[in-house]
Write a structure and sequence with these properties.
With 1018 residues, the protein is mostly beta strands. It is built from two helices and 87 strands. The strands form 15 sheets. It has a 27-stranded mixed β-sheet that branches. Strands 3-5-7-10-13-16-19-22-25-28-31-34-36 form a 13-stranded parallel β-sheet, with no helix packed on it.
Length: 1018
């Protein structure tokens, strides 16, 4: 959204204008008269050439050889054939020809390229051979080709797959295009006043779409497999979304589409309007696929003519109007048409041939509550002759669609009528209104069937599965599985329930029928006979060896076919329970904060009510972490029996009190304990060692760049505390630093370590200090040998950089000053710095955008958005950028930069608006675009960019140029418009603009582009 806003704001400022220097062709024997270049020799292109803004009369041939590339932009090329020779354009294999307009905009026509004949009496030839490349866009081709018996002479001859013809005009040629064994893309063109618009022949499987054909005298589109020596080679192009208008200028000569010689093209969504002979003529065993074609005659002879064709796929086609002699003319073909509208009385069928007319039937089934009924049965029979008898099933939306039913079959002497059809619907337990109805299929239609009651369409519910996912079951014993299965609305009996299990990751699916506990089944209603609409079902999985993982799930269906699957569960077979468990027991103490006094939690159940005492241990067999709530034994100790514990594993305990549930003590460790018992004394409040483990002491960081600080917490045993609950605060003597908020540890979820971002802003040696803020206890008085609850390291912060002021909400134009020649930053890094700075100042920025205007005309932008990403581009010196923040914050954003220098600075500018950064030196820059134009103040008015009488003589006499500055306070532009041609300037349109010599940027509009040097008075 921000990118769109940028473009809208800038477009309001831009006055489009351009001047492109012509690039002359490499020619010989040429002369120029009145802006026209005359070339009287053959031209061979074997290198890369660009011709533009030229009018050329060529009395010779133009050949692009292998390795050659020629681009025409706003070029009029006139081929000067004579009565003795017809010249040609040829693109040989490996050659490339591009015919373009100047601005790549098909809506402008003054800059098109045109290839024409110079003499109306003599044509020229144009050929692109196999292996060549040809692109024609927004251009004109006229006067090409004549009939000679050779396809390559009859129009623009394309014998290559690497061809694109787009938004161009082909008129007054013999054939507009001749596609020979080509898969060219031909789109958005016009073909008019040709003999043939397009001829696709000999394996030409091209894409022909969105074209307009008009007033072509013989064919709009001719598709054939004809070849002089090898035919037929059928062509099967895709022809869609074309309009073919007024084909044929004489009676009996105009056919919009002709298809012959075994071709099977796809004709889709085309409109054929007004022809003099036949709309579509098909012959010689061609069988096109015709879909969504509309034909509107105005005095035509026939609609569709089938002559020795095999057409069997005509869909969704309309022949409109009464002026066609026959809508369908079957000279020697058998035809099937589906969902096609035509005048059935306007039909000619030769002896021995026939037509089948089909329509679509859709069925929708719903219940009395207007909800669709899936899995209903639809039965359709043919009443007339009994040859059709089929069943269908409705989908999840209650539909059966696209049923093809025959209206009638007809030959030259007989008609077989299949109407009417009988349609009935059935579904268990319900009846339907107007069922078993008669439907006449003389048009495509939808029939609706409504039930008299609400149907059961819901799948059964499977719940309370035992064992549950993750459970441990005894090895060597049969595994009993059970589940509750219930019909959704208790109207249909449960039919089948099946247990599926596997011990080899579903390589083998073992299906076991489950059985119902009849005592758990219940009636649908009181007083009715027992119905099994719900109950508990049982099944068995055979005994498994120790350590085996078993996956299983359950499927259930009711008697009318609604079915459901449960989620897959995974259980593990383990050894039988031990009779001599490993016992973990001990007292839980609370430190009261003074005098080294320990009080058992049990001594005051009101103030220190222990809600959770949990023991954790690691199973050395599979590395899994197990847990168990501890209980109190007869001696008042908390105790847990660890049946799956292995000697040497790690054991720790978490304790919490209900008064301050966020304070936990963890990681009391048992090492090499023997089975049978071990004491674990867990003390709530014992201090830990806190270390900054990254970066290391004395490391160097770059000022303004983010780096990670890693906190690590160790317990009194010197190991990382995997369940530490505390709050760590980071401080620094760098008052401008971007520091993270306090980090709250979340026990075993953090595992005793955490990473936070940090940015230091001041150069030199500075410290960062991490402090535990869990409580205000005198930590060192407990365990003096355990270290302190804080850690401090010194860092060397490198200097260099500049600041961006983003203290106002909205859009800013900010720049990278000219003197720093490297920033070592990208857009994503700058966005992160802005985020960290705002976070440090207590401001939440949910929307941050940095955008870079690219050097194109019209302008485009690369943007990177906080939280969403985008184009991540480098930040370049001397350039300016759009930055958006959704809330202003009081501090500037410091950007790291290195390698400061001074001197004269230039940058390349382009025609149009340029975003400019500011320099920090005091020299006066010169705009090198047609004259001596200074644009730094010399009248003592302050650090602003402008023009005044004291600025000296102005020699630039071109059109106006502009300087515009974005005022972040008003969110509007302040703009100077400069006019030249006099010894001073007219400032009637000027507004007050102050361009400050900081890290801000401004716009300058330049006609022509080039190299520019500039600076601003400090």
């Amino acid at each position: 959204m921000k990118l769109v806003l940028i473009i809208l704001v800038i477009l309001a400022l831009i006055l489009t204008s351009f001047s492109i220097e012509p690039v002359n062709p490499k020619i010989i024997d040429a002369s120029t008269t009145s802006g026209i270049t005359y070339i009287n020799t053959n031209i061979t292109v074997n290198d890369t050439q660009v011709w533009q803004n030229q009018t050329i009369v060529l009395t010779g041939n133009l050949t692009i050889e292998n390795g050659g590339s020629l681009t025409l932009k706003n070029v009029t090329l006139r081929m000067n054939s004579t009565d003795s020779v017809e010249y040609f354009i040829e693109v040989l294999s490996g050659g490339h020809l591009y015919v373009f307009d100047l601005d790549d905009n098909n809506y402008t026509t003054v800059d098109t390229s045109q290839i024409l004949r110079n003499n109306a009496s003599y044509t020229y030839f144009f050929r692109a051979y196999e292996g060549s490349s040809l692109e024609i866009r927004n251009s004109v081709i006229q006067g090409c080709g004549r009939f000679s018996g050779l396809l390559e002479n009859e129009g623009l001859y394309i014998n290559t797959d690497n061809a694109v013809i787009d938004h161009s005009n082909f008129s007054y040629n013999y054939d507009g295009l001749v596609l020979y064994n080509s898969e060219a893309v031909v789109s958005n063109n016009t073909f008019y006043w040709n003999q043939v618009g397009i001829r696709a022949t000999t394996y030409s499987d091209a894409l022909i779409e969105n074209n307009w054909f008009g007033w072509n005298s013989e064919y709009g589109l001719e598709i054939d497999g004809w070849d002089n020596t090898n035919g037929p080679w059928p062509s099967n192009p895709i022809v869609r979304n074309n309009i073919i208008y007024k084909t044929g200028r004489d009676t009996y000569t105009g056919v919009p589409i002709q298809i012959q010689y075994n071709c099977r093209p796809l004709l889709e969504n085309n409109r054929l309007i007004d022809w003099t002979e036949d709309a579509i003529w098909m012959g010689d065993r061609s069988s096109p696929i015709i879909n969504n074609t509309y034909m509107q005659p105005d005095g035509g002879n026939y609609g569709m003519v089938f002559s020795s064709s095999n057409v069997d796929t005509i869909y969704n086609t309309t022949i409109a109007g009464p002026t066609v002699k026959e809508h369908f003319y079957l000279g020697s073909s058998a035809v099937t048409v589906t969902n096609t509208t035509f005048d059935h009385s306007s039909l000619f069928i030769n002896s021995g041939f026939n037509i089948t007319v089909n329509w679509y039937l859709h069925i929708y089934v719903n219940d009395s509550a207007s909800k669709p009924i899936p899995n209903a049965t639809v039965h359709i029979t043919d009443n007339a002759n009994g040859t059709y008898d089929r069943n269908f099933t409705t989908d999840n939306n209650g539909y059966v669609k696209w049923i093809v039913l025959t209206d009638y079959w007809q030959n030259s002497s007989t008609t077989i009528d299949y109407n009417d059809y009988t349609v009935s619907v059935s579904y268990p337990g319900v009846s339907f209104i107007n069922n078993n109805r008669s439907v006449k299929m003389n048009i495509s239609r939808t029939e609706y069937f409504t039930a008299t009651s609400e149907a059961d369409t819901k799948a059964p519910i499977i719940s309370n599965i035992i064992p549950a996912d993750g459970d441990i079951v005894p090895a060597g014993e049969k595994i009993n599985v059970s589940a509750d299965v219930e019909d959704y609305n208790k109207t249909s009996d449960i039919g089948n329930v099946t247990l599926h299990w596997s011990s080899d990751s579903w390589f083998t699916d073992n299906a076991v029928p489950m059985w119902l506990d009849n005592s758990s089944a219940y009636n649908q209603k009181e007083g009715e006979a027992l119905r099994y609409v719900g109950g508990r079902w049982y099944g068995d999985i055979p005994p498994q060896v120790e350590g085996t993982q078993v996956q299983f799930y359950i499927t259930a269906s009711d008697v009318i076919g609604n079915s459901a699957n449960s989620a897959a569960e995974t259980i593990t077979a383990a050894a039988p329970s031990s009779t001599d468990p490993f016992v973990v027991y001990g007292y839980v103490y609370l430190y009261n904060g003074s005098g080294n006094v320990y009080n058992p939690l049990l001594c005051d159940g009101t103030e220190y009510n222990t809600a959770n005492i949990v023991v954790y241990w690691i199973n050395s067999t599979d590395g899994s972490t197990n847990s168990l709530a501890m209980t109190t034994d007869s001696l008042g100790r908390y105790q847990a029996d660890l049946y799956n514990y292995s000697d040497g594993g790690t054991v720790w305990v978490n304790a919490s009190d209900s008064t301050n549930a966020a304070r936990y003590e963890i990681n009391s460790t048992v090492i090499n304990a023997t089975a049978g018992g071990a004491m674990v004394n867990v003390t709530y409040g014992v201090p830990y060692n806190l270390n900054i483990t990254n970066p290391t002491n004395g490391s160097t960081v770059i000022r303004g760049n983010a780096f990670n600080v890693v906190y690590t917490v160790y317990d009194s045993h010197g190991v990382i505390a995997p369940g530490y609950y505390g709050v760590i605060n980071l401080t620094s003597n760098d008052t401008l630093a971007n520091l993270p908020p306090d980090r709250v540890f979340n026990g075993t979820a953090d595992g005793g370590t955490a990473t936070v971002p940090c940015v230091l802003r001041t150069g030199g040696i500075f410290y960062i200090n991490a402090t535990d803020t869990l409580s205000d206890m005198s930590h060192s008085s407990l365990y003096p040998d355990a270290g302190q609850w804080w850690d401090e390291i010194l860092l060397n912060v490198t200097t260099g950089g500049f600041t961006w002021d983003l203290s106002v909400r909205g859009w800013h134009i900010v720049s990278v000053p000219q003197m720093p020649i490297a920033t070592n930053d990208t857009a994503s890094e700058i966005v992160s710095l802005i985020h960290y700075t705002a976070q440090r100042d207590g401001v939440t920025l949910s929307d941050i955008t940095i955008a870079n205007r690219t050097g194109s005309n019209p302008s485009t932008y690369d943007s990177y958005i906080y939280g969403s990403g985008g184009v991540d581009f480098p930040i370049t010196v001397g350039m300016a950028y759009w930055v958006y923040v959704d809330s202003g914050f009081p501090s500037s954003v410091f950007i790291q930069a290195t390698n400061y220098t001074s001197g004269t600075f230039t940058r390349t500018v382009f025609n149009g608006w340029n975003m400019i950064g500011l320099a920090h030196n005091d020299s006066v820059g010169v705009l090198a675009s047609g004259g001596l134009v200074q644009f730094a103040d010399s009248d003592g008015a302050g650090p602003n960019i402008g023009m005044g009488p004291a600025d000296g003589y102005i020699s630039y006499t071109g059109t106006p140029w502009y300087i515009s500055y974005w005022d972040v306070g008003t969110q509007k532009y302040q703009t100077y418009i400069y006019k030249f041609g006099f010894n001073n300037f007219n400032d009637a349109q000027n507004r007050a603009v102050n361009i400050y010599a900081g890290a801000e940027g401004f716009w300058i509009y330049i006609y022509g582009g080039g190299s520019m040097g500039y600076s601003v008075e400090a």
